[in-house]
Amino acid sequence: MLAIFHKAFANPPEELNSPASHKGPKKPKLPEETLRDFLSSHPTNTFSMTFAHAAVLAFVRSDRPDPIRQRLFCGLDDIYCLFLGSLNNLCTLNKQYGLTKGTNEAMFVIEAYRTLRDRGPYPADQVVKDLDGSFAFVVYDSKAGTVFAALGSDGGVQLYWGIAADGSVVISDNLEVIKTGCAKSFAPFPNGCMFHSEGGLMSFEHPMNKMRAMPRVDSEGVMCGATFKVDKYTRINSMPRVGSESNWMDWDSH
Predict the structure, then answer these.
(1) Please, are residues 60 and 213 in contact by the beta-carbon 8 Å criterion?
(2) pLDDT tens digits, residue range 144-187?
(3) Among 173, 178, 218, 219, which is most buried by a count of CB atoms within 10 Å?
(4) Cα of 209 vs its chain's centroid, Å
(5) C-alpha–C-alpha distance, residues 138 and 162, integer Å
């Protein structure tokens, strides 16, 4: 999958951007170039959507459907979801949210996001923590202009993110797409974490701890985009909860 969001509202961590990207022989690409490369590498089974200059979503259909390593795309009421992997407790979650048995993982994530956005009864970290399985997803709310992404904690699915030539954030499970599109300004998306364009990056496993940027140097000795890990020694003073004056998405940005 591939998701690209304009820098004006995606607000990725500054540490993801490496100054070395513009000094080496391989420069980062513009979003349209990265999209073109992605589509050309999968010429027969790729689907993409472009939202003016705000966002791009691209999805590769599976040649052989695999219930464990699923690739799903879904859109409902101007909310779109790219989902990789599977949820072991999907049936239980569908019952909890009052959804039908035929609801797949991408459809469920959209419903969970809508519940959170509309000030539901649970904090965002708890909702994502309740997902049991190997998964990664990216949600784009085109009406609100917001991005919500998360990666499971078990390492069963890999996800990467980086910065394009114009400052847009690029998210994909394809490492080569990220490398060629973002040059040195990329890193693995941290396991057990979620990112919101207004709230920043946080761990849904350790929501009361801040995230720390860890410098990363590649095999050539060049500084790349930082990785992020939970800082077990630095706690957040307070955590906004649904029902308070703060919106659920306004968790402390780190």
Answers:
(1) no
(2) 999 999 999 999 999 999 999 999 999 999 999 999 999 999 99
(3) 178
(4) 20
(5) 14
